[in-house]
Amino acid sequence: MDTKHPLTAWRDKHGITQAELAQRVNVSRWTINSIENRNRNASRDLIAALLKVSGGDLAFSDLLPDAPSEVPAPSLEAAS
């Protein structure tokens, strides 16, 4: 069973397209699509930007699910 990526679920909940999210975090729609389809992982800077845009609805582990739990989340200050 293939489950929805947490980023896809968050976008759907808020009615945001991949293109709109991509524009908000300054990446291509292809990048968002690749992350949601689990073809690539987000960079540390992109994770920080996505966490900031989500307003706390997403967690670091949602965006990089294979990361060990002891890896600290990037500072949201860095995404400003």
Architecture overview:
The protein is mainly alpha-helical and 80 residues long. It has a single domain, classed as Orthogonal Bundle (434 Repressor (Amino-terminal Domain)), CATH 1.10.260.40. The chain contains 5 helices and no strands. It has helices spanning 6-14, 18-25, 29-36, 44-54, 60-63. Helix 2 crosses helix 3 (29-36).
Q: Outline of this structure?
A:
This protein is mainly α. The chain has a single domain, classed as Orthogonal Bundle (434 Repressor (Amino-terminal Domain)). It is built from 5 helices and no strands.
Poorly predicted runs are none
Beta-strand portion reads: under 5%
CATH homologous superfamily heading:
lambda repressor-like DNA-binding domains
User: What is the CATH topology classification name?
Assistant: 434 Repressor (Amino-terminal Domain)
The string of secondary-structure elements, in order, is HHHHH
Count of discrete domains:
1
Using the CA coordinates, give the radius of gyration.
Answer: 12 Å
Largest sheet: none
The number of helical elements comes to 5
Mean pLDDT: 86
- The strand count comes to 0
Strand pairing plus helix content: what structural class?
A: mainly alpha
Shape: globular
